[in-house]
Structure formats: structure tokens, C-alpha cells
Amino acid sequence: MYLLCQPSTIYLDVEFTKYESKDPIRNLKDAHSNGLTDALMADVPDSGCTLIITEGTSAKEFALKGLSVLGNEKYGVYAIEGVLQNIIRTPNKISAEVQDIFSALGLELRNVPRRHFRKDFGPGYICKDIKTLRYRHVMIMTDQDVDGAHIKGLLINMFYCLCPTLLKVPLFLQDFTTDIVRATHIQTGQIKGFKLLSDYTAWQSKVIPAEWTIEYFKGLGTSIRLAIEYFKNKEHTRCFIWNDIDANYLDKVFNPKRADERKIWICQHQITTVSPYSSRVVTYGEFIKKELMLYAFEDIRRKLPSVVDGLKVSQRKVVHYMLDMPKDGLKSARHKISQLVGAISQHSNYRHAEENFEGVIKAMAAAGKNNIDLLEPHEGSRKIVRNIISIILFVLPFSAARTLTLT
């Protein structure tokens, strides 16, 4: 039997036609050309191989470094770049990365019943027998921050939309967890690792900070030196299992038609104090409630301006640094944006991609609809003259205005 649509619905054996698309359909050769590092035994029947899907090429380097412990006979690696496609939003246009993942598994794009979308039939994948797959398991390896949880959720949603049969297979989907913060005691050398920033914050309030050195890992690329240590410890691997109620959680989180319901859910949701990493087995619903919801709260905090000053978090960091800029930083009247971005990131403890700040600075210098240009652009050139306008001085009258030219 096939389980093709929602995991609670079973369809009897029926042959479905190959999916016809205007865009070229990718195959295993295309996946190899797009960076798939195959396991040596991937084509050996029932070999029990694992496909590691990483968030970016730096995380792939982390995985390949760790595989020096386990070997590459039964482990393949594929890196996705950027944010993965939300299949529910574009069900009839499957991205190249999504096709590569299923090609690596050995599945072919078909026309299958998908009644929870607008059309009765659409592109999808059929898995008759888990033993026929090139990879018996998929391990998700993303950064440990909330953005990594978002990528993880999109991958789960991808399987749910295109081949939900796989999610019902026990232990098919796994994830690899790492520390986001490590504290080392200066005198004893004791190491404490934290997978959640909230756990670290709670611990920090109970110790003497001066006795510890703290290391924050922005992504797996900054943890490559620890890869072998992680891969030797099986406690960093966690397995997903299916519960019938998980289908509703996945649809509620990713379906754009349920946006209003999702807003109410987020407002009423209570963050649990129980660590989601206390068990090595987790349901998809538990992952959404305990981890993906943290991303939802952080995403809101980043995108919504404050009612106090009208600034978003990133904008406030820029203004704060410029008002509080040390005098020795103003020896030159001109600074490159890249230099300023690095200084702001270090000064304000910014933990995300630094290139985001470049767009923030340029947007703050552009006047437009519903936008006050806090930075004055330099006429006739690509340079930006940074000038804290009078409204900022009114809000912060104790700060003196300074002018800075950015390139």
C-alpha cells in the first residue's frame, strides 16, 4: 500500500504517471554536480546508509571532518544553500535542491494525489518499500540557533508534503545537535555545553562569570575543530517519530491560509522550561512546540519595530554604535561599510550574518514611504554620509551628533 497524502490517509496500489513539467526534471547525476557527496555503499541494496543534509557548505565541511571518525562507506552529505523552499506555498514548482535530495534517496518525481493542496494531483514521490531507498536514514545537520530550527522545520515540511510515507517510518529522520555556547572554567578546565541560549542565561545567573571563559558558536563552520569530538559521542544524535496529531501541527505552522490562526497560537503559546534535548527521541509536534516556536518569537522580535523608538533590533544596534562610537574610531572621516559592519557586530554582540547589516545601513539612508532616513546619503556618489538627524538627538539629547562617510 501507499501512503501518499496526509499520513492518516491510505491509498491502495495504483500506478501514477510520471510528472510532466515545463522545467527540466533533475536526476542523480544533477545532484552529484550540485555537491552531493555520495556514500560508497549507497547503491548496495538494504545497506542502511544515512544521508546528512547540512545547512550550507561550511556545515558540510563540519560533517566531512566528522566522517573521518565514522567513514564514508555508509554516510553521504548534501548541502543546501539559503532558506529551503516551503512546498505548501509553491506545490507545483519543486526547486532543484528539493529534487536533488529525493534523487539522492532514489525516488522519482510522479503525479500523485495531494488533496490538501489546490489541485487534486501534483508532483510528489512514492516510496513502496523503505528497503529500496539508496539511503535508509536522513540526518539533518543545521546551526544550533533558532534559524537552524527553521531550516530543520522546512525539511520536515518538505517530506510531509511530497512523501509523507517516510515520516511514518520509525527513525528515518534524525537530527544532529551541537552546543551553541560552551563555558570553560579557567582554573579547573571544566567544560559545560549549552544547546539553548535560555539554558545558558539561566546558568550564567548562578555562577561567577569572571571564573569562566565563554565561547559562542555562530554556526557549524565555527565548530569544525570540534567535529571529531561530536561524532564520537552518539548522544548528539536525536531521532524523530510520528504521531497522528503532528500533521495538524505541520499544516498550522507552514500553511499560508492559516496565518490568522497561527498568530493567535503564537500569542497564546507558553514556552516550556523543559529542554527539548533531554530525550534522544522526539515527535514532530514536540519539535514544533519546543524549538520551532522559538524561531517564531525571534522572527517577530527582529521584524517588528519597537513602539518606543520605532526601530527594529538591527537598526537600533546601528544607531547605538554610532552614538556611542569611541573617539579613536573617528580619526578618519571615511570608513568602508564592511569595516563599520564588523565593528557594529562586535560592539553589539550581533550573532547573525554580517552582510545583513549592509542592507540595514543602506536602507536607513534611503527616504521613502513610511521611512525616515536616519542616515543622510552623499549626493553624487555611492558614499553614505552618516548624520544623526535631529529626531534622534531629540530622543537621545545627551548624545552629540557626529558625521561619518561610508563607502
How is this structure best described in words?
The chain is of the alpha/beta class and 407 residues long. It folds into three domains: 28-177 and 228-302, Rossmann fold (3-Layer(aba) Sandwich), CATH 3.40.50.670; 181-216; 313-406. 34% of the residues lie in helices and 16% in strands. The strands form four sheets. Strands 2-1-5-6-10-11 form a six-stranded mixed β-sheet, sandwiched between helices. Strands 12-15-14-13 form a four-stranded mixed β-sheet. The longest helix has 20 residues, at 284-303. It is globular. 32% of the residues are buried.
Helix and strand arrangement:
Layout: H1 28-33, E1 50-55, H2 57-70, E2 75-80, H3 96-105, E3 109-113, E4 121-125, E5 137-141, H4 146-162, E6 173-176, E7 181-185, E8 191-194, H5 197-204, E9 212-216, H6 227-232, E10 237-241, H7 246-254, H8 259-268, E11 281-283, H9 284-303, H10 313-323, E12 334-335, H11 337-348, H12 355-364, E13 376-377, E14 384-387, H13 390-395, E15 403-406
Parallel strand pairs: 1-2, 1-5, 5-6, 10-11, 12-15
Antiparallel strand pairs: 3-4, 6-10, 7-8, 7-9, 13-14, 14-15
CATH class type of the largest domain:
Alpha Beta
Give the ordered list of helices and strands.
HEHEHEEEHEEEHEHEHHEHHEHHEEHE
Number of helices: 13
What is the CATH architecture annotation of the largest domain?
3-Layer(aba) Sandwich
How many distinct domains?
Answer: 3
Low-confidence stretches: 1-14, 328-333, 385-391, 393-407
The shape, in one word, is globular
Structural class: alpha/beta
Share in helix: 25-40%
Q: Which percent range describes the beta-strand content?
A: 15-25%
Instruction: Indicate the CATH topology of the largest domain.
Output: Rossmann fold
Let me know the number of strands. 15
Mean pLDDT: 79
| Sheet with most strands | 6 strands, mixed
Kindly provide the radius of gyration, computed on alpha-carbon positions and rounded to a whole number of angstroms. 24 Å
- Termini, distance in Å? 62 Å
Order of strands, main sheet, comes to 2-1-5-6-10-11
